[in-house]
Design goal:
Layout (H helix, E strand, L loop, with lengths): L1 H12 L6 H29 L2
Amino acid sequence: LTYLVDLFHTAITGDGVYPPMVDSAVLLIVILIFTLGAKTIQQHNLHSGR
């Protein structure tokens, strides 16, 4: 969430803590990790009958 706020801050005021590419890359990586984790847990639960 901090990276998203920093990305908005950079877009609005032009001075962020991290460059926009770093903010975007970290957000994308975190989204992918959570999505893959959720899919893995869902598949495990489907196979175990929960």
